[in-house]
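so my prof wants the structure for this chain in the tokens format not the other one, which i didnt know existed until like an hour ago. anyway here's the sequence
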Amino acid sequence: MIGGADLDPVVAQATLYSSRNPTRRWLHVSRREWVLNAVRDYTENRYSRALEVGPGAGIYLSSLGSSCERVTAFDRERVFLKHARTLATQHPNLELVVGNITECGMRTGAFQLILCSEVIEHVADPRSALQELHRLLAPEGVLILTTPQRFSLLEQFSRIAYLPGAIRLARWVYDEPVWDDGHVSLMTEGELRHRLDEAGFAVVEQRKMGVYIPLVAEFGRAPALRLAKRLERRMQSGRLDWLLWTQCYVLRK
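here's what i got, hopefully its the right format
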């Protein structure tokens, strides 16, 4: 069955960025482009050490490997680090480490740049995770962080879509992998900002992005994507920005 339990997680993640559904593809590609731009902007001075927490399918590791002298890819899932070994042949400055971000044991202040994209929502104790990221970051270092918004339209609809009968229907509609994404620690902007302040981070840049309209996204094809982009531009500067899917931050220690 498409998107079943036997699906290779690396393949599943990669599918998101090449989805046949225009809106689904845009939701992930636009976030990827924001992150890549942030990495480029903040590695112009050639940071010596960078860390990516939860690299998954490794979509950012090549950019980090080309921009930084040494890069550590840190993940609790060995299958993703196994996949990253192929990138390590092209980037010998890439180190692979398995572990849990809430108790990683790496040296305090070891990294000038940390990337943590779509990870915090999978961690049962995001407070401890953010405090550990702050500990690992060098003075004046930069953390690039993205995570979904708790009450975004996509997250609310997903709670229904991931029910057993509904997820089979979603797989049939998309005709590609669909799986429960395991979000256990979704936060609103207010909740996340509180955790960031608590950990000692200062916000340098912030953006929200990604509009999902149930059923319209699934069946509207190109017109649905044009509508989503128009709505995103309006909602980014209005009171309904909490309905946008992803909150993105550049943070300093």
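also thought this was worth mentioning. The chain has a mean pLDDT of 93.
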